[in-house]
Amino acid sequence: MKIKKITILFLFINAIFLHFSYSQEYNAIDKIILKYPKHFSSTEILAERIEKDFSTEHDKARAIYSWIALNIKYDYKSYLNPAKPIRFSYRNEAEKQKQIESLKDKTWQKAFDSQKAVCEGFTLLYQHLASLVGLKSEVIRGDSKRLLSDIGRQNSQSNHAWNIVQIDRKWILVDATWGQGYYDSNKKAMVNYFNSVYFDTDPKYFFAKHFPDSGVYLNEKLNKEDFLNGPLIFDATIEGDNEILSPNSGIIEANDGDKITFRIKNISKTDTLFYLKKGRPAKIENPREVRGALEFQVTYDKKMGSYITFFLYQNSIASFKIIPK
Question: What is the C-alpha separation between 254 and 51, in angstroms, rounded?
């Protein structure tokens, strides 16, 4: 049988429009993991080490995330040259499932041994290690949102994979692939840069950047239109809890000279917030603080182009698509 091939795409930030810098921080669990060997002879030995050093379900789940994000590199060459679809035959459902499980085992084992993978390898390795330390984890496949061109995209795509893991009877969201680094378009290479914001991510932020193929999370239906048409948010947005309160869409209709009102959570008037106008930073004028958020207006100039991105200090936090009325 021909398995439907999962196209593993890793979508990247467009550096022509966007600049980003993350504060690479490690918590107590990460600092322990940093002392681990970069490679273990087996997943069982790694799991035993984690169980020895950590006692709670949360700490074990975080330790697995951190080890993978710190030691498995994104395989950009495989992303550019994906493997051919795998075919196999079976006589009954039990044999089919056995074949599928065998393929999954080969995928996580290859990721562990070679220390490089695309998202399928990251997620299956996470699920496998979680099972070894007694945690329930599932692989979720779906769409991802990382580019300006994703704002207002017409259809969702199955181009990414992530995990959910159960901690103290509660499921949390985990994306170890995005935790390991980012693509530098200037160097045309992956940069390993540990980022913890994709462990136990708040669903309101996670599903602004991910949409499961099922359209459902924990038996609750998600809004695909909100995902496709919402603003593009960034890692710094999640880290700073900078929720976009207004406008409620990432697509803004405006003519030249129109004033557009924005409201973003957890930003004060003393913070350095700006956008690009004619290729130069433009400061926000006359902002006001409203119930824990910064409210301000931007006068749209068609010379700004089709997108407007806001930066908090050096971090991009939100992008919107501007279309003429």
Answer: 56
